[in-house]
Amino acid sequence: MKLDEVEALRVHRQRFGRDGRMFAAPARVNLIGEHTDYTGGLVMPMAIGFRTVAVVSPHEDGRAVFYSVNYGEEVSLEIASLGRTPRGHWSDYPAGVLWSLRLEGVEVGGFSMSLEGDVPLGAGLSSSASVEVVTAVALLDRAGVTLPLEKVATLCRRTENEYVGAKSGIMDQFVVAGAVAHRAMMLDCRSLGYELLPLPDEVRVVICNSMVKHSVATGGYGDRSDEVVAGQAVLRQEKGIELLRDATLEDLEACRGKMTAASFARCKHIITENGRVLEAREALLKGDLERFGKLMIEAHASMRDDFAASCPEVDTLVEIAMRQAGCFGARITGGGFGGCTVNVVSAERAEKFVEAVRREYGAATGIADAQCFVCEPSDGALALLAKGGAQ
Ligand code: GLA
Fold this sequence. Notes:
The protein is α+β, with helices and mostly antiparallel strands. The chain contains twelve helices and eleven strands. It has helices at residues 5-16, 92-103, 127-143, 149-164, 171-178, 220-239, 249-254, 261-286, 289-305, 312-322, 350-365, 381-386, and strands at residues 21-32, 42-58, 63-68, 73-78, 111-117, 183-188, 194-198, 203-209, 327-332, 340-346, 372-375. Strands 1, 2, 3, 4, 5, 6 and 7 form a seven-stranded mixed sheet that branches. It has a four-stranded antiparallel sheet with strand order 9-10-8-11. A hairpin with a 4-residue loop joins β3 (63-68) and β4 (73-78). α3 packs across α4 and α3 (127-143) crosses α5. The chain is globular. The structure holds alpha-D-galactopyranose. Residues 30, 34-35, 37-38, 168-169, 171-172, 216, 334-335 line the site of alpha-D-galactopyranose.
C-alpha cells in the first residue's frame, strides 16, 4: 500500500467533521550497529520512504481520540486522568506518547487524531517508532511547544520502555525524528551526538523481508537484552566499566568466569559491533564499498553466531544476496529473530538483484511472496516538518 496523503486528510475530515493538520514520520533501516544502542554504543541507521501520517484537529471536551485507519478502530481517552495503563493494543503507542509528553510537562488540549501508515508491520523497520514520533510531533504542535530532537527521541523511547514495556534503545526514535535525506546517521547512543554520512551515488540500499514476523515487545529481544545487561553488570562490578561501550575484548575475557556463556557471547557481539560501526564510518567517508560490505557480512555472522538473533530464513536470504552480482554486503537488520535484511547493491544491478533474490528465496524456502524494497535515505519527522510537512 502506498500512502495517499490527500486521502488521509479527507478521511479525517469525513470522520471528525473538521479539517486537520497533517504530520509525517518515516520508518528506518539500520545499516550496521545492532543491539548496541541500549548499552550506550554506536549505530548507523537511515530513514526510509515508508511513512506514518497523523492528521490532528482540536476539540473542546478534554479527550484524546485516536483513530487507526489501518485497523479501522477508534480509542477515546480522558487526557487529565491518563495513567500508565497499556492494553497490549495499537493505541498504546500514541496514548503512551501522550502520557510521556504530560510527564514532560507538556499540556495538550482535547484532540482527534487519525493515524495511517504504510510501514510493513513486524518487519523490523520500526513501525512503532514511526507512530510514536509522528504522534509526538503532532501533539507538540497542538500544544504549541517546540522541543529539541534529543527530547523528542527520549520521550518517545520512554513510551516504548515504560508504557509499552519493550526494552529497546534510542536508535529508532532518534533516527525517525532526526534523519536527513541522502544521508545515513552515525549516532553515539551515550552522548546522542551524531554525524550525517553520505552514501555513494553508485549504490542502493535494498531491504528484503524474510516474511518471518518479529516483535520487539515480546520474544527473544527481551531475553537478549537481559543477557547483555547481566554481562554489563559483571563488567561494572569487576572492572568498574559503567557501559559495555567502554569495554574491550580483553576486559570481557577477564570476566569470562563470572558470567554465563550466553552473556559472554552477547557482550562479545556488542564490543566487536561497536568497532565495526567505526570502521564502517571510515569506509563510507573513503567511498570504500568493498570494505563497507565486508563489515556488513562480519556483522551478520556476529548477530547469527554470538548474538544468536538470526533465523534460518534470514541466513538463507543473506547467502542468496551475497551470490548476486553487484551486492557489496548483506546482513540482518533490526531487533532480529526474523524481519528484514539490509543489502548494499550497485545501483545498476538493484532491480535484477531484487528479481533474483525473490526467485531464489522462494525456491529455497517456499516463501514466494518476500517483499524487497529499493530505498533512498529519507528525511526524518523534524526535517519533514521544517519543509512544510504539516498543512
Ligand atoms: C530494535 C530496537 C532498537 C535496537 C534494535 C537492535 O529495533 O527498538 O532500540 O535495539 O532493535 O539494534
